[in-house]
Amino acid sequence: MSLNTPDTQVCLWTLQHAEPASLATYTANGGYEALKKILAEKTPAEAIIAEVKTSALRGRGGAGFPTGLKWSFMPRNFAGDKYVVCNTDEGEPGTFKDRDIIRFNPHQLIEGMIIAGYTLGAVAGYNYIHGEIFEEYESWERALEEARVAGLLGKNILGSGWDFDLHAHHGYGAYICGEETALLESIEGKKGQPRFKPPFPASYGLYGKPTTINNTETLASIPWIMRHGGQAFLELGKPNNGGSKIFSISGHVNKPGNYEIPLGTPFADLLEMAGGVRSGHTLKAVIPGGSSAPVLTAEAMMACTMDFDSIARAGSMLGSGAVIVMDDSVCMVKALERLSYFYFEESCGQCTPCREGTGWLYRIVHRIEHGQGRPEDLDELLRIGKNIGGNTICALGEAAVGPVASFVKHFRKEFEYHIEHKKCLVGA
Amino acid sequence: MPLIEIDGKQINIEAGATVMDAAHQAGIVIPHFCYHKKLSIAASCRMCLVEVEKAPKPLPACATPVTDGMKVMTRSIKAITAQKGVMEFLLINHPLDCPICDQGGECQLQDIAVGYGGSASRYSEPKRVVKEKDLGPLIATDMTRCIHCSRCVRFGQEIAGLMELGMPGRGEHTEVMPFLETQVSHELSGNVIELCPVGALTSKPFRYSARSWELSRRKSVSPHDGLGANIQVHVKNDRVMRVVPRENEAINECWIADRDRYGYDALNSDERLTSPLLKENGHWREASWQEALEHVADRLGRIRESQGAAAIGALASPHQTVEELYLFTKLMRGLGTENIDHRLAQADATVGVGARWLGMPITEIDTLDRVLLVGSTIRQEQPLLAQRLRQAVKHGAQLNVLHAAGDDLLCKVNARLIAKPSAWLNGLAQIARAMQEAGADLGAVAGAVSLVVAGDNARAIAASLLSGNSGGENKAVLIGALAQNHPAANELHALAQAIATAAGATLGFLSPAANSVGAQLIGVLPGPEGLGAHAMLAEPRSAYVLLGAEPELDAYDAAAANATLHGAEFVVALSAFKTAALDYADVLLPIAPFTETAGSYVNMEGRPQSFHGVVKPLGEARPAWKVLRVLGNLLSLGGFDYDNAEAVRADALPTDFVAGLNNTPLAADLLTLNSGDGLERVGETPQHQLDPIARRSRPLQATVDAAVPAVWIGSELLTGLGIAEGGMVRVRQGGAEAILPVRRDDRLAVDTVRVAAAHPLTATLGARLGPVSVEKA
Amino acid sequence: MLSAESLAQIDRELTKYPPEQKQSAVMAALRIAQVELGWLSRDTIEFVAHYLGMPAIAAYEVATFYNMYDLAPVGRNKVTLCTNLPCQLQGADKIAEHLQGKLGIGFNETTADGRYTLKEGECMGACGHGPLCLHNNHKMHDHLTPESVDKLLDEMK
Ligand SMILES: Cc1cc2nc3c(=O)[nH]c(=O)nc-3n(C[C@H](O)[C@H](O)[C@H](O)COP(=O)(O)O)c2cc1C
Ligand code: SF4
Ligand code: FES
Questions:
Q1: B286-305, pLDDT tens digit by residue?
Q2: Measured between CB atoms, which of C24, C65, C125 is closest to A90?
Q3: Nearest alpha carbon, ligand 1 atom 2
Q4: Which one of A4, A148, B447, C27 has the fewest CB atoms closer than 10 angstroms to its CB?
């Protein structure tokens, strides 16, 4: 099967068309057919959820939770309003796929959200869009308007008698709002601070109402599944890892960008697609799933296939599918310093281990990078990390620890050199 | 009921409870900071992490619901490791300044750190320093000590109903602060001091004055409003150093109002009267108790002889104790006068069939479903009862209001009827009429109310009161201080009772003072031939005996009271303070305030609460009951031989006193249900002017709330006067006048001018709810 | 305080949320106010809070939590450069150096003529196109090179 071609692309196939984002392009190629069929046949919610379960679609936002199962948690006979929420807060360093879905295939996301709204019995849906991509926020608003005019949204959708509307909520610069409950707080007009779970959003979500939150790519995959069937989606990928997935490759490759390929594709193939490592350099390390995922060495990575299970076995996570490639010119201390600063800067501040611990981690790594390291620092970093991980309200705590622990584990020599010589091994 | 095991103990606990609740029930203490039983769960400090069998990670006890068969270990290696880890994080940026911290010795962080902190900190990076915040005169800050538990913020949002503090910023840059510096002005603001588990928020007046371990802690009862908040008075070297709440779930829960907390400052102030004073040729001189008391007995005896006992008026403050009021009344009746009253601010002296009270236990306020609040500025009158009402509203109660102002009650109000005071009778009649039209039986007032036309607001209130009449609802009609002070108080009472009966509601009175109910039970009230407070000041007597009373501030018509007292032949004032009686009295007798004498108050729910003196009387001051005992004996009146306060109490409050609580109204003539013409004054007692102690507390008087009283009027009137907001106006009531700044309030009823009473700057004015005129000054 | 157009935009945002959830529009309202006034003063924040019927301190919490609100005046052109790891690997460091050298200011500083403010940003969700920057919060410029930066700066008036 050819890779990154329209045959295997679930979300980015519109790119082969002149006006990828237009409603005309989308409908001319089968767009909204799935929705029409569901509304015309009044497909029962159970049947849709069963199809999604068959597809083995796993959340594309980072945790890889099976989407069909998540949908089945929504209370059926709830008396009040329910909501669906799409997570386009894409702020995990290395991830830039959801932006492209909005830029190049907004209607598939809209259709996916409408089907989700129909299946889950929601009255409205919100798409939370990352603060820094204002142009995409505006273009998605335009796409929504297009859909409204076409009778696909609002009152009496396609004459079905069913009402449902979608709105965009624009973030304004806070990585933590990608965490689903922080995101809900943010839609409610508050600081984006994660909620303690339980209760989970399926019982207590937006405005305290049952809510399902999915990543952009997850929701955009739904129309494809409903059109081609769950089985076809599953067969695109591999068991327990259904479908294709967009991999965002950044860093030291010749052609950084998004590549939508079947799950289970060898990493080597992906690297080749991205033009390989810059000439004159060799692969040193890869963060395979966004900055929160533990870093892997070149050897470990080259042995992986790109799917949830393979990457997990290698000791990291597929996460959001953001692959950060580092070649031999990279100083791992400096790289970690920047990531640690990010988590320190982005900690929401409510829970103690994260608020205090991320600053502590960053300050130590910063000292090491600036020639002030002490021999005991490395063990101290690991010890502090252990006191953060697992003890926080949300996973940002673990996300902050992941890089620290893995960088120190796989590249300890480099850190020790820094401490001892007060300078970089790479430059030396 | 799930059965769970916690540290090896098996306990049954109700479903929905948390592991923290279960631990509490099992008597196991789990360290915590952000958790507080009265606040929502934040689960953010992570101090309460415990091990739960089968859970991969430690879980916060405060937020983890119990499940059947759950096994919790609060002291396992895993739990302790997590707790120690959290403690280390909390301490890295916390200044280790316990020796100079006001919280030292009563600090949760310090206490828990002793058990968990490592001996030496491994943190060698620079510590965070946070800028101080100015929260006004009551609360001091040391924000570097803040551990971000967010209790103070949640208190504002959830208990006070007003978010005065927030936590702007993100991550470690998050700081607790108000939106604008200097003022945190909510009537319950001081409670954040106890809520703060560290020394970030402490009492400003108490600052640096004592260490917690030097203080002895004595139980007492707040002498201010009718709630009877339980307090703990902290004493050092025979001096009251501060007051904090004493938890009593049935009364004040774990809160007290700022008035309860900071009033004590007056007790040590220069304004205390510390020696008997006699006026001779217009000059004061100190006198011995013997001389002063003989002088009083002599003068009163002679006036009675020459002019008859009816020439004597007796006014007592309802903030005096049961024991004092009892002997005072006994003394005055012994002298033969029936001109006795404690209701200084009331225009209508009608004496009810019994003592007017809340009509229900205080805790029942939380469970009300429908409420009509009549003539009450409740946040000022009863800060903690207002808090309970807010909780009721949060749980779905419909609160309805009849008042002259649409004040912000910090909760949702279902419907309001806003009218000037003389229109309140008509307002209640409208509500009754609307109920009548809906088929309700209005009993004795049916005929009278059938003549009025109900407006939309009255209908909305009536509909609310009648709604959900399945019998399961808890409803109340509550009569506030302003309605009690109203010239037609008796008629308002009768209408309110009719409404309550028709709605299946309980009628209750919000007793304004700490001992209003006690005073009524004892009968500090005019006898059949006697004059009530308002009348005895309007129709001057030759002599007045004042017990803790300041009629020149607290009377319904302060200007008239002032003139009368100045014109009296003989005035004796028993007072803890140097009051304005210095200008008009002949004898001043220094009596002990509540902290210096044993005594009792009966609160609004009819609960007697006794307390002991916690310090020795200041200077020559003596407990008033002892002073009155001597006076009774000097006047040769029988029955004054009491050995102690308990013996007085036994006579004052017979065991069956509860039978005396009765809100049944007297028959009322409801012939005129029309309102008056022209502008009317609404003169409330500001919260920090409620009584002699509060009005002399420097911190309370430094608050925004105690600022120079303004004349509040609506935009239309303001424009009519051609004066800008903040400019000065002259307020007139007959010959009485005051010049004050004017402010705009468009929530006031038409033709209403709001000017606080009971304040030195407005004491030159007349009737609290009387006609008024306003002009540019 | 705000123009009729801005208020109309806020009103449009309000239609997205249930009527009793006006606070939901606070992020948008603050953004709209900032676009009109250049930055968010306390007065502006208080105005927005009143407009939405929420406590001023709660609006202030929001304004201080999210990075893209400016709580102090900034230059006419705020240039926020992403310096996070993927951009760093793709040359953001050099662009940072170039920007600072060219404008003679560091991050969080404004040129004396009030024309430019430089900020350091976190991941902007477009890493594959880095190095990149955001102009006045809303316009992204990617694949930055020293030459393209020079051109951009010239175009910013
Ligand atoms: C700190 C943090 C940041 C996150 N950021 C994102 C994000 O930017 N986009 C996203 O879809 N999910 C993000 N997530 C995961 C979400 O919480 C949530 O799991 C996801 O949106 C669910 O969608 P899915 O099941 O379709 O993946 C983040 C989680 C954490 C803890
Ligand atoms: S882990 Fe960090 S980001 Fe998550 S809730 Fe705690 S403080 Fe906030
Ligand atoms: S007390 Fe449980 S997390 Fe703070």
A1: 999 999 999 999 999 999 99
A2: C125
A3: A179
A4: B447
C90–chain A nearest CA distance, Å: 6
Q: In angstroms, what separates the C-alpha of B144 from chain A's closest C-alpha?
A: 14
Residue A198 at interface with chain B, using a CB cutoff of 8 Å: yes
Count other C-beta atoms under 10 Å from residue A54's C-beta: 17
- Residues C28 and B716: their CA atoms lie apart, in Å, by 36
Instruction: Report how far residue A265's alpha carbon sits from residue A305's, in angstroms, rounded to the nearest whole number.
Output: 5
Q: Give dist(CA B563, CA B581) in Å, integer.
A: 12
| A174 in B contact zone (CB under 8 Å) | yes
Of the candidates A411, A43, A19, the one whose C-alpha atom is nearest the C-alpha of residue A227 is A43
Q: What is the mean pLDDT of chain B?
A: 95
C-alpha B94/C-alpha B407 separation (Å) is: 41
Cα separation of B648 and B671, whole Å? 45
Structure tokens at C103: 């404008």
B171: pLDDT strictly greater than 50:
yes
- Please name the helix (run of DSSP H) or strand (run of DSSP E) that holds residue C119, with its range, or none: strand C116-121
B717-750 pLDDT, tens per residue? 999 989 899 999 999 998 999 999 999 999 999 9
Cis status, amide bond into B60, omega within 30 of 0? no
- The protein residue with its alpha carbon nearest to ligand 1, atom 24, reads A59
Each residue's pLDDT tens digit, B549-596: 999 999 999 999 999 999 999 999 999 999 999 999 999 999 999 999
Which amino acid would we find at residue B334?
A: G
Q: Is C52 in contact with A189 (Cβ distance < 8 A)?
A: yes
At A2 the pLDDT is 41
pLDDT reported for residue A5: 61
Mean pLDDT computed over A352-363: 97
Least CB–CB distance from B171: residue in A196, A347, A367 = A347
Q: Please state the atom number of ligand 1 nearest to the C-alpha of residue A92.
A: 8
CA distance B109 to B103: 10
Tell which residue, B303, B291, B461, has the closest CA to residue B372: B461
User: Which amino acid is it at A369?
Assistant: E
Look at ligand 2, atom 6, and give the residue with the nearest C-alpha.
A351
Measured distance CA(A215)–CA(A196) in Å, rounded:
20
Query: For the segment B676-722, what is each residue's pLDDT rounded down to a tens digit?
Result: 899 999 999 999 999 999 999 999 999 999 988 999 999 999 999 89
Q: Give residue-wise pLDDT tens across range A93-138.
A: 999 999 999 999 999 999 999 999 999 999 999 999 999 999 999 9
**Inter-chain contacts counted by CB atoms under 8 A, chains B and C:** 32
Q: Give me the helices (H) in B416-550, please.
A: 424-437, 446-449, 456-466, 481-485, 489-503, 516-522, 533-538
CA atoms of B576 and B271, how far apart (whole Å)? 9
From chain A, the residues in CB contact with B169 under 8 A are 349
Distance CA A425, CA A330 (A): 10
For the cut 70, the answer to whether the pLDDT of residue B182 exceeds it is: no
Per DSSP bridges, beta strands A265-266 and A283-287 are unpaired
State how far the Cα of C37 lies from the Cα of B166, in Å rounded to an integer.
25
Per-residue pLDDT for B524 more than 50? yes
Of B41, B49, B122, the CB nearest to A391: B49
CA of A331 to the centre of ligand 2 (A): 28
Q: What is the mean pLDDT of residues B120-125?
A: 79
DSSP one-letter code for A158:
G
Would you say residue A289 has pLDDT above 50?
yes
C chain contacts of residue A134, beta-carbon cutoff 8 Å: 137-139
Query: What is the residue-wise DSSP string for B464-489?
Result: HHHTTTTS---EEEEE-HHHHHSTTH
Whether residues C55 and B167 touch (CB distance < 8 A) is answered with no
pTM of the model: 0.96
Question: At A5, is the secondary structure helix, strand, or coil?
Answer: coil
